[in-house]
Write a structure and sequence with these properties.
The protein has about 180 residues and is of the alpha/beta class. The chain has 4 helices and 12 strands; from the N terminus they run βββββαβαβαβαββββ. The longest helix has 14 residues. The radius of gyration is 15 Å and the shape is globular.
């Protein structure tokens, strides 16, 4: 029998009966997942979100709605930006939410959401290289987040590096190039 392991919840839980057909709200905020690099003389720029294309390519059949909140590098996010993210999630009719976000301050936003958005399942994800690059973790991370949003209990989660973490018990390990659970 298959099982789902969510870091911070326990060893392995049977997911039969957990799956939901509830619509998923996808909030986009920018970050590396939505960056593009135009030529050798330019810098990365956040452009139109590539999330709709990724979901189309994956042939996602579950109903979803995408709302672009902003196009920012997470290092440029302000308290007002985080308040907007939290209020949008809190006021949305959907109870299952995926938030694409830059990885540098993902855990800061997760703490705000955990404090301000009760009773919903919110899964943050992003990428360490742009979704438009051939070698990127973006599609995998988005798929992990979309699946986690369907099966995880209410709370705030981060889906990165092939794992689903309790968002309050994880950090980005720059040297290792991945997210790791706090010990």
């Amino acid at each position: 029998m298959a099982c789902v392991r969510i870091v911070g919840i326990g060893p392995c839980s049977n997911y039969q009966g957990w799956m939901t057909s509830q619509p998923i709200l996808i909030l986009t905020t920018g970050g590396t997942i939505d960056k593009n690099y135009f030529d050798a003389l330019s810098q990365y720029q956040i452009v139109d979100s590539g999330i709709p294309a990724l979901l189309s390519e994956a042939r996602v059949a579950l109903p979803f709605r995408i709302v672009e909140l902003m196009r920012k590098d997470s290092l440029e996010m302000t308290d007002a930006d985080r308040a907007l993210i939290a209020s949008t999630a809190r006021e949305a009719p959907e109870t299952r939410i995926v938030l694409t976000h830059g990885t540098d301050t993902m855990t800061e936003t997760a703490r705000v959401i955990a404090a301000q958005v009760p009773g919903k399942t919110v899964v943050l994800t992003g990428a360490l290289s742009p979704a438009r690059f051939a070698e990127t973790d973006a599609p995998f991370n988005l798929g992990m987040a979309f699946a986690a949003a369907q099966v995880a209990p209410a709370g705030v989660w981060i889906a990165m590096s092939g794992e689903v973490f309790d968002a309050l018990k994880v950090k980005k390990d720059r040297a290792a190039g991945k997210f790791v659970a706090l010990s």
